[in-house]
Design a protein that fits this description.
There is one protein chain. The chain is of the alpha+beta class. It has 2 domains: 59 residues, no CATH class; 30 residues, no CATH class. It has 3 helices and 2 strands; from the N terminus they run H-E-E-H-H. Strands 1-2 form a two-stranded antiparallel ribbon. It is elongated.
Length: 102
């Protein structure tokens, strides 16, 4: 299915959908995992997606199980006076726990 063939009622669910189509190399570049999943769901190609259970569908096939992307740094930036706010501390603790599991 081509991007132009996706029913518009499905695209309406993503009003700020930004797709950068590189026709010279056949690349669709999307901004986030949800949009990547959307494009992949409508057969626009191969996708690099997280292995979270809620993102994986039964009919998807993992093509390169031993391939991994390079590690990249993760930065958490917040105002210095916000570090004492419980929600910020909880979010940072959650990220640290999640990243250490990977």
């Amino acid at each position: 299915m081509r991007l132009s063939e996706i029913p518009w009622d499905r695209l309406a669910a993503f009003p700020d959908l930004t797709i950068d189509w590189r026709a010279d190399i056949g690349l669709v570049d999307v901004v986030d995992a949800n949009r990547c999943r959307f494009a992949f769901r409508y057969a626009l190609g191969i996708a690099l997606l997280p292995l979270f259970d809620d993102l994986i569908c039964d009919d998807w096939i993992q093509l390169l199980p031993n391939w991994q992307i390079k590690d990249v740094p993760l930065y958490v930036i917040y105002y210095k006076n916000r570090g004492t706010v419980a929600t910020v501390r909880s979010f940072v603790a959650f990220l640290l726990e999640r990243v250490q599991k990977v």
